[in-house]
Amino acid sequence: MKHSIKAPSVGESVTEVSILKWAKQNGQQVKTGDLLLEIESDKATVEIIAEATGALSVMKPAGERIAVGTVIGMIDDAVQGTAGTTPSATASAPAAFAPTAAKASQAEQPMSPAVRKAVAESNVDVSQIAGTGKDGRVTKGDVIGYLAGGTVRAATPVAEVPARTGERRVQMSMLRSRIAERLVQAQHTAAILTTFNEADMTAVMALRNKHKDSFKAKNGVPLSFMSFFTYAAIEALKAVPEVNAYIEGRNIVYHDYYDIGIAVGTERGLVVPVVRNAEKLSVVDLEKKLAELAVKARDGKLSIADMSGGTFTISNGGVYGSLLSTPILNMPQSGILGMHKIQERPIAVNGKVEIRPMMYLALSYDHRIVDGKGAVTFLVTLKDFIEHPEKLNLGL
User: Fold this and answer.
1) What total of structural domains would you count in the chain?
2) Catalytic annotation on 211?
3) Are 329 and 315 in contact, with CB atoms under 8 Å apart?
4) pTM more than 0.85
5) Do 244 and 366 contact (CB within 8 A), yes or no?
């Protein structure tokens, strides 16, 4: 018996997914529970597990975008597969399936009356003609060119400029495409403005250094600066609730809870997992949650639920050495805090010049809902809690 492997539904609004990589090879023996492949949507990565034992037939290659519900492979429990090795992410579909699938897809594609007439009059097999029209459709020019040359032409748009030596084109992943769309959406939708301040990190660094060894030994997770900034941001959001709100039509939706998104850079792009009800978490629970989300982000295992929602976002560009930046809003949120590199600088303290570890802080906000006074108040409040961390009552 043959068991179909279908592209799964990974979200209510998701209609298309991409095959990130196959974990098994075509013809390989698989067992129930084995990891077969990873599917990528514009929001998350999902693992597909074998639901039967038998020989695997790969019908769609890695990198191909497919509609949800499409059959991407088969498991034949009546056939004994080969041992196989782990394939690369760019493994292509097997020869046994590729021509058949290509022929069927081209033969069934819509054709204009002119193309249909040209095909009928010339008695050619349209599946042998590589289309250069929209979505790979065959045009009348494709038919004429095929008849003139007698060979299948490459499916390359006629107007495409040849790549120079040293250039290469790589299709964007669905995640990268989604990131691009959301960033442009934010720029086109919100009235984004950024205000800046700086914080003296002396006190918070001293408090962290005092407790970090015992904290990790007792709880198994490190004590990071992100915890201090998360709690300080929550206090600032309480002082300026419009930063924790968003615009919906002609309404402003306020949140009386604090779901804090933590922007994480991965090899595949920027993701923003969410710590829900962060205001209710102890510092130990918060650090454990941050560590869990960091591992899932690194391994590409974040689910849609992990990244859904969020009322405010924190982005730490300082881990990459950024001294100052203007973060872009994570729509529909109205505020995002940018942390930066801690750098020693001379500053005036009680009339004297001292060298202090300083961090620039940036708040990008939607000026449609947050006024300049509110944005400045947010950063001043956050700065006060960072420079006087004992006010956070973390129980260290």
Assistant:
1) 3
2) no
3) no
4) no
5) no
